[in-house]
Amino acid sequence: MSEYDSASAPPAAHQAPPPPSPWAGTYLLMPKLAMGLLVVSLISLLWILHRNEVDEQRATLIKDILWMEQNLRFHLSGVEDQLSQLSLDLSQDTAPDTTFQVRARHMVKNNLELEQVLWLDANGRPKAAVPTATTGRQILEPFGDTSVDSAVAYAFDAARKLGKPVYGQPYSVPLRGTEIELYVPVFRDSHVSGMLVGVFSLNSLLSSAVPWWFAEKYQFHILDSNGAVLAAKSNIVGDLGLDYRIPFDPPGQGLVLEAATYSSPGNMAQRVLAAVIVVLAAAVSWSLWAIRGHILRRLEAEQALREEHAFRKAMEDSMVVGMRARDMEGRIIYVNPAFCRMSGYSPDELIGTRPPMPYWDPEHMDMHEFQSTRVLTGKSPQEGFESRIRHKDGHMVHTMVYATPLIDASGKQRGWISSVFDITERKRIEALQRQQQEKLEQTARLVTMGEMASTMAHELNQPLSAIASYAAGCANMLRSEERAPDRQALLGVIEKLSAQAQRAGRVIRRIYDFVRKSAPQQEAVRLDEVAEEAVGFLEGEAKKRGVTLGLALPPGLPAVEGDRLLLGQVMINLLRNAVEAVSDQPLHRRRVQVVARVRDDQVEVRVEDTGPGIPTEQADSLFTPFYTTKAEGMGMGLPICRSIIESHHGNLRFEPRDGGGSVFAFRLPREGATMAPDAPPPAPNAQAAPAVQTLQTAQSTQPAPRDQTHHAAP
Ligand code: ADP
Question: What is the whole-number distance in angstroms between the Cα of residue 630 and the centre of ligand 1?
């Protein structure tokens, strides 16, 4: 694993989900706990408030019932005082009957609760009664009578014995409710001479003594010792809440006062509030449960995402193809480990960088700039393009780059993603093969040239040395001063000399005949096809040098008659020269264009380049054999081309290009046309013949042009 295997963080959309939190369970528990505590707190608060309220109510109730009891006692004791005063007055009065009548009447009138006042004698027989003598009970009966209520007798007796007021037992009277009697003894000469009896109606007592506000607030009862209601006062019918009882003394006799509060609307509101809280708590619990389900599903999805991410990461890390993503401005947003290995830079060093990139080759910045602009403007070729990047340690890496738009999940283009293949090894092998092939070609040419030269030297040596010796003989004869030169002898020598010259001519003719023996194959050749094949053949070389090859071929170009192989060789030669000529130009000037057109009966093909051009003084030497300005050039290309073209009854010429550069143009008669007017006859040519021969020999070592149709330049 290299240091870059950790690769960069991918674009945000593909970032790894965070690892599952060990506290996830706690996070789920916390809201539930908090919710529970909240509900408990709220209920406790309500309960405490309720308790306080109840305590307060109870305190108020006790206070109020004590006040009420005091009020009742005040009423009763008021009547008791009046009866006691009457009893005192009766004991001293001279006309007691009248006094009783007046005073009793007055008392009954002023005290609503007082139903009746009786005056009994010492035996319990009624002496007088106000307002009437009728009573609820048979109290008028003498105490000796067994029908008399023993309780009455008991109270009577107790009052007589004690000498002070005593209350009797309460009793019920039809239509009048419960009544109670107060026995007040009447003394005469220190003896009980009679008894005053005040009869109280308990209901009337409550009516007069209990104020309205008290009745609004409480239901008020007087109970007997068994809890039975003897009298009651209440203005409202409703549910009862708190109640409180205290003894009703006086009159005593086991009587009890009871006050019960009505349920206040405040309680109702509290209950509603509590119910709302419970409902809300239930709703919150339900939603918590729903959220829990949601979170669990989310956790599952996160887990799946994490696994997916891990899988993708593993795939990414094991890829050998470099991946590089750039945003719309050209900033690198992602690189994979393979690209980092290829360039030698870490993701941190690359992410966020804009052109010029650190791995660009400083010597070919304009080429990188051009390629980068093409990618960012979407004009990058679909079939990819070659590039050369510089590894951080300085060595060059040849790459093949395929750039495609980077489309995100919403369908929006976020930038460009490039797949980068390392083709350094392939390139090295290709270059090696090319070198070997070129060497082979060169050697083959040299061998053929050498053979040709030695044959010619050998063949020509004899006639030439004979010519030389005959010429020397002639010269000697003419220089001799002794005698005049023998005209006949001289003629003979000159004839021999001529014969030798003819022999030399025959040698040359023989070589020419030899060349003629393998004369070009005549067939109909489409020059546009030849041009396309030649461009296809040189395409690789041109790409390597950053040269754009263009074709401008009109449709329906007429065919010419000739040898397809040789004409192809001419095209290749002219194109290769042009490609080499533009190679040192700035990138935008590395253009070579092949243009074809019809001129009268001729088809013209022009190879135009934007190279440095050729000075006029050199233009004359271009077609001279062995003229070259290249270190490894042979200077035979152009002479051979001219020779081939001329042997096809055409012509080849150089002309400067408008706007700089050179044009090499050749014309050939279209198929079936007569010979071109400016084409020289296919005469044996001492320079052209070996050139054609050399070329044909060399062809055997050339690879056949690739069968590919070339489109516009990459
Ligand atoms: P070689 O290519 O082996 O040098 P050629 O006969 O093909 O032999 O070319 C002869 C010379 O002509 C070249 O060395 C070069 O100086 C010149 N030449 C040929 N074609 C061009 C061209 N298109 N632009 C500039 N110079 C050229």
Answer: 8
